[in-house]
């Protein structure tokens, strides 16, 4: 069977279950394409020969009752994988080999999937273009020298470029949805508490969530079903009835109330984003949904709030990298000197910048003015959503204020880089689930995404809306394989 | 508000990140533009707002106080940049 790598996850699972394809055939196809795609720099660490061995072993006594039987899969390098190097895109973890497995990846292997390798990302997931990775820029398969977005840039690039049938990323302020939007793929950030954070390298613990990234909504639903479990190893993991997302997936969204928040119509937003949004509204109407204008009055305060809360939590989380227990160590004249040099040489510029912001807003004399203030505004932002959800079932917005930009274009201007996340950040602050689905192209042919935001723990609701809209949108990604010689 | 070089040096000390003068200049510029952007929050009156510390509005669960991991010293030491089999090794702290 030719073009295995262009098949959806759902189709690969079916072909394995129908014994039309073996795990070895599938795994070898993705390994082969990944080998030819080094120029994308999607991988930080490859585990290809082990993957093929595992696939052969799976085929010897295949358990076809599993949800991901013998399916190869690469994952973002922020998930700890036992005995396979986990770097978080940082020099400071260049030689870190976890002795334990993250809950989310363990759930995936328990359903029969096979690890292909670890995918590139912004250092400690801090970035919107994958340019802060110590392991180099990632190419967007859409066009040469175009960023794939970030921080899950390697993941988005690998799914879009068909180096893995599906993957997982993490999303603290948009790190799944923005790269999905930039690469013409589907990404879901689940509700805070849906997926365990155990074994995920921590960035901002009150915001971080793992989620699926896929070629289509159906695949996304299947992977969400696998990774979302209650876990006592994460004290913020929430116990609630989780749906069989893939089984309960349906396109009947007739009568669903979808809110359109006027505050997302920001100054300087390109005309094509506004047009995409209007098209999205029409698609939703065509599916039978009812469109309702709503207001989220504190939207413009979300990004400044995020840039206090996230760095504050990061500065605390990253205090553990001291050159003593694990990771890189620089030589120093004494203990303090060793700490300071280790962190100065081990962290990249963006990570240092955020640690310094976080340390400053938590420092004596500034805590109330910044950190406490931000926590109060965060409450107002959450209240906005609570009010809106009295009237609507879901909210529809663009995923990003622009399409993908060129490598290097925004690197030296942190604030302009941060503005990428203007539509995604409020969702993390409120802990809600949201998806990005590809919905059109800009004048260059670069993909544009729409975001569907749901009520807390209503992943099924936004999956269904996305599923119905996907059908109407009928998006086709324009991938020319330009990087394959 | 403006963050000067003295403040940068102070934050760098608190952060345990060594910063030379050239890097301090660059950081001061970056942090000032970021804080200028953050100052927007002062437009809002938040006097009577309860701060949101967690979106998971549940009380944290307690578990029984039982040993769950057996002898994992080797695993803990495994990734350390320097150890003597039993302990992490750091530069001398007591003369």
Write the layout of secondary structure elements.
The complex is a heterodimer of chains A (485) and B (95).
Chain A: H1 9-17, H2 23-35, E1 43-46, H3 48-60, E2 72-76, H4 103-110, E3 114-119, H5 153-160, E4 167-171, H6 177-183, E5 186-189, E6 209-214, H7 217-227, E7 257-261, H8 271-286, E8 290-294, H9 302-317, H10 335-346, H11 349-362, H12 368-388, E9 394-398, H13 414-418, H14 425-430, E10 434-441, E11 447-454, H15 459-473
Parallel strand pairs in A: 2-3, 7-8, 7-9
Antiparallel strand pairs in A: 1-3, 4-6, 5-6, 5-10, 9-11, 10-11
Helix pairs in contact in A: 2-3, 5-6, 7-15, 8-15, 9-11, 9-12
Chain B: H1 5-15, H2 21-38, H3 73-77
Explain what you see.
The complex is a heterodimer of chains A (485) and B (95). Chain A is of the alpha/beta class and 485 residues long. Chain A has 15 helices and eleven strands. Chain A has helices at residues 9-17, 23-35, 48-60, 103-110, 153-160, 177-183, 217-227, 271-286, 302-317, 335-346, 349-362, 368-388, 414-418, 425-430, 459-473; strands spanning 43-46, 72-76, 114-119, 167-171, 186-189, 209-214, 257-261, 290-294, 394-398, 434-441, 447-454. In chain A, β2 (72-76), α4 (103-110) and β3 (114-119) form a beta-alpha-beta unit. In chain A, α7 (217-227) runs antiparallel to α15 and α8 (271-286) crosses α15 (459-473). The longest helix of chain A is centred in the C-terminal third of the chain and has 21 residues, at 368-388. Chain A is globular and about 65 Å long. The two termini of chain A are 23 Å apart. Chain B is mainly α and 95 residues long. Chain B has a domain at 5-40: Histone, subunit A, CATH 1.10.20. In chain B, 36% of the residues lie in helices and 0% in strands. Chain B has three helices and no strands. The longest helix of chain B is centred in the N-terminal third of the chain and has 18 residues, at 21-38. The chains are: A alpha/beta (485), B mainly alpha (95). At the A-B interface, α9, α10, α11, α12 and α13 of A face α1 and α2 of B.
